[in-house]
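Training component of the fellowship. As part of building independent skills, the fellow (R.M.) carried out the full modelling exercise for a liganded target. The chosen ligand was zinc ion. The inputs are recorded below so that the supervisory panel can assess the work.
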Amino acid sequence: MYIDLLGEPFASKDTRLSLTRKVQKQLLDEANARWPHEYSALLYGRGTAICGHIAMPASNHDRHSFSWNGPDFLQALKQIRQTRMQWLGVLHSHPHTPPIPSSRDAAGWHYPSLSYWILGMQTPATPLWRGYQWVDGEFDVRSYTVSDDSE
Ligand SMILES: [Zn+2]
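Fellow's submitted model of the complex:
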């Protein structure tokens, strides 16, 4: 159903995953505004380049896992499709813990082709960014670049 919509940001060995500086800043600002609660967003773009995001409403205030309401999730996917972009990943914050996926994060992740980002905000002045790929039943840290592309 969403074949074109679902990206494969790790499919290219030659091009590294990237995130625009603008999106990175917006994610950080919004995660700070949501603190001490968890923040989450869908990330979209083309190929390996993330150039936009959609903040997701919190469906609970659980500090150790994130989940979305079905209608919110489908609405966000529809929005990505309308911009003719691809869904490339998700990000959520860990307001009180390091940016390491919890066992519940692993259990709740169903899109292995996408990138999985965690923003560690234990020390809000020095946020820790981690991008992961799900490989053989576990999250592997992936390097990425921050680009200055405007669009
Ligand atoms: Zn988590």
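The panel noted the following from the submitted structure. The beta strands are 18-20, 40-46, 49-56, 86-94, 115-120, 128-135, 138-142, 145-147. The pocket of zinc ion is lined by residues 92, 94, 101-102, 105, 118 (CB under 6 Å).
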